[in-house]
Amino acid sequence: MFAEIDEKYKYDGNDLGAVYSKNSTVFKVWSPLAEDAAVLLYHKCTDEKPFRHMPMKKSREGVWSKVANGDLKGVYYTYQITHDSISYETIDIYAKASGVNGIMGMVVDLDETDPAGWDKQTRPELKSYTDAVIYELHVRDFSIDKSVNFCYKGRFLAFVEKGLVNEAGDSAGIDHIKELGVTHVQLMPCFDYATVDEADVHRPQFNWGYDPMNYNLPEGSYATNPYDGKVRIYEFKRLIQSLHNAGIGVIMDVVYNHTYATADSCFTKTFPKYYYRQWQDTEYYSNGSGCGNEVATERYMVRKYIVDSLCYWAKEYKIDGFRFDLMGLYDNETINIIYEKLHEINPNIIIYGEGWTGSDAAIPYEQRAMKLNARHVPHAGFFSDDFRDTVKGNNFENRDRGYVNGAPVNEDFVREVMCGRVAHPQIPNLNKYAWTDTPQQTVNYVEAHDNLTLWDKLSYTNPTDSIETRMQMDKMAAAMVFLSQGIPFIQAGQEFLRSKPLPGGAFDHNSYKSPDIINSLKWNRKTEYKNVCDYYKGLIALRKDHSAFRFPDRDSIGQNLTYFSKLPSRVVGFSLKGDDKLQEIIVFLNPNNYEINLFAFEKYNVYADGERAGTDILYTVEGDYKVAPYSIIVLGKPYPEPDTSEGDNTNT
Q: Which of 332, 446, 532, 640 is least crowded, fewest Cβ atoms below 10 Å from its Cβ?
C-alpha cells in the first residue's frame, strides 16, 4: 500500500510548512488520502478558538495548500485534517516555530531571529572525522548546579555567559569547555520534546529529551520565554554562535527513529500509519525503539521529511554535525542520502550514531544502518561498544571488569580496539571480523549519558581499591580513548570524575528523568579532582598536536602503527610513525597493580605518564625506565635537526 502511495504521490518540493513573506504566507501539508484540510489561525498560542478558518485545496501530489494574504508574522496556526470522516487538529509537522508546549505552529520571519553578526561567524573546519574530539552535554546539566552563579540557569543563554568560576575560583561554563580543548560539543536533544511542561519552567523538571514532539524547532523549556516562538530560535542561535566564536563545533543529538506519541502524534493526525513501520501484513506497529513505535525511514516522504529537517538545521542554525539515536532503525539508503545532502551544504559536517536497535525491528537486517553494516554507510561513524566494554567491562553488568580495572583481558582485544577496528597486518582476527574499513567510522568512548559514568562503574568494580588507585584507572581509560585510532568521545564532567549517586550508596544508570541533584554538572569537582581534569586536558592537547594519533585511513594505520611483542603480562605497547612533528611515538599501557621495567635503546622524550600529559616534554629516558601501575607512558623521538652547514667548497 505505502509503496503505491510513494509512487503515486511523492512530492519533491521544498515548500512544505508555512512559507512566510510580508505580503502573504503559503501553507502546505502533504496528506494525499485526507478527505479535507484547513488552516486554523490563532492570535495567541493559549487561545481556545481560532479567529480564522481557511479551507485548503489538494494538488495531484496530495499536497493541501492555502495562500493567506497579508502579513501573518507572529500568528499561530494549526491544521485541521479529516480522515475517515473524523477531523483532527494538529501542529504542522514542518513547523519552524511554536508556542508553549509545541501545540501550535507560529508564522515566523526567520531573519528576525538572527543574532548580531550571525552571518559573519566562522564555523570549524574538519578535514577528517578523526580530527574531532567530541564532548557530550545536556543543556540543563550545564548550568543548573548552585556551584556556579549562572544568570540563565538551565537555559540556552547560559552558554553565552563568560568569566564564570566555581566556588574555588576555577573556570566553569563555556570558558572551561574552551580551556579543555575539545573540538565539538554534542548537545543532547534540543528539538522540541514532550515531557517537560514549558508552561511551568520554574518547577524543577528534567528529561534527557529522547521523546520527540516537533523536530524543526528548539525546546521551549530552555528558552527565557516559551510562549513566543521567536525567542527559543534566537536564543538557541546565540548558544551556537557562542560556541562557534570559541572555535567549537556544535553537534545535535537527533531522534528521528521514533516519536513520543503514536496514535496521538502530529504525524498520525497528518497521515495515519504512514510515518510508522508495521509488521508485515499486519497493522501492528513495530517497536524497534522500545518506545512504542519506529519511524519508517525507507518510505519516500518519511525519508524526505528527515532529510529536509536535517538540512534545515544545517542551513538555518549552522549545525556542524548530527548524532543519530538508534541509527540501526534507519535504512542504509537514507543515511547515505543524508550524508550527501548535508555535505552539499557544508563539507565539514560529521554524522555518527548508535549502531544498534532497541529491540527487533520491521526492517530487514541487511538494510539497517548498524555497526556490522558499516561498510554500506561508509560516511557515518558508529559508537564502538566493543571499545567501551574492552576497556572498562560489560556496560550492563555493574561489577564486570575490563582492561583498566583488573580483568584478564586478552591483549589482542586491546590491540583490536585501539587500532580503530580496521584490518591490521599484526592482528589476523581483524582480517575476518573488522566491521569497518576506516577509523573515521569508529567512535571510541568509555562513558556517555546512558548507563553508569566511568567513575561510578569503577566504584562498583573496585570497591576495595583506594580513590587514588581508581583515579589512575580512570586516567588510563581516558588515555586509551584519546591515544587510539578513531574518533574520541567523552561525556561532560567525565574529566572531573562525574558521578550520579543515589541514596543508599548505589548509582543511577538511567538518569533520563532523575532530578538535577543527580544529573547536574558539579563544577566544584573540577577543583577537587584538578589533577584528573588537567590530565584529560593534556591528553586532548597531545592528540591534537600529533597527526599519528589521528590517521584518517586503514592503510596509514597498517603502515605506521606497529605493536610490540614479548612484553610483560597484560602490557600493550605500540610504535607510531608518519607523524608530522615526531619521528616516532611509542605508547605503553600497564594495567597491572605493579610497576613494570622497560628499556629504551635510544633517548626519548616523555610527553605523558601516569601523572601528567601534554605537549611539553616532561623528562627524558634512556636505558632502564619504569611504568607505574595502572598507567601509560608516551615517548617521542624528534626528527634530526637539519644540517645547515655549507660544507667545504675548497678546490684541491
A: 640
